[in-house]
Amino acid sequence: MKPLGVELESLSYIDSEEFNEEQAKKEIEGLIPTNVRDLQIKQDLLQHNQHIINKSMPRILVIATGGTFACVQTPNGYTPAKGIINRLRLYRSLYDEDFTKEYAQHDDENITPVTPFNKRILYKVLEFEEFLDSSCMDIYDQLSIAKMIK
Q1: Domains observed in the chain
Q2: What Å distances lie between residue 7 and 43, 44, 77, CA to CA?
Q3: What is the CA radius of gyration of the chain?
Q4: What is the pLDDT of residues 28-40, one digit of tens each?
Q5: Are 119 and 60 in contact (CB under 8 A)?
Q6: Which of 27, 55, 96, 107 is the Cys-Cys partner for 113 at CB 3.0 to 4.6 Å?
């Protein structure tokens, strides 16, 4: 994961008295060097992704115990299989590859593209070591799920 501010901090003129809003406006008009325009683009990107910086991005924990959600087609019909997170990455509406690589902290996390509500969603998928049949679950299985949530 790469911190968002690293590139901006490396630009020496950011904190200088010479940098001001008027210079940024002129840069947009192409009247001063491109490094200020690059700074404006980076600032716009930071503002657009402010929910990442503030950690207000919705986070969802998906616990895969088996069942239809975990199934893949086989010659013998559908059967639960490991690797749900990777299968979800095949769907553009559930996985923004560039954004996930930049901001997700673990391999079992994905980040969606911006939703119609102007938010991204970070979701993490945890899979049981051995999938369960929900019709055979007992209190011990339910306690295992509760421990995963904790």
Answers
A1: 6-48 (no CATH), 57-149 (3.40.50.1170)
A2: 11, 14, 51
A3: 22
A4: 555 545 566 666 6
A5: no
A6: 96
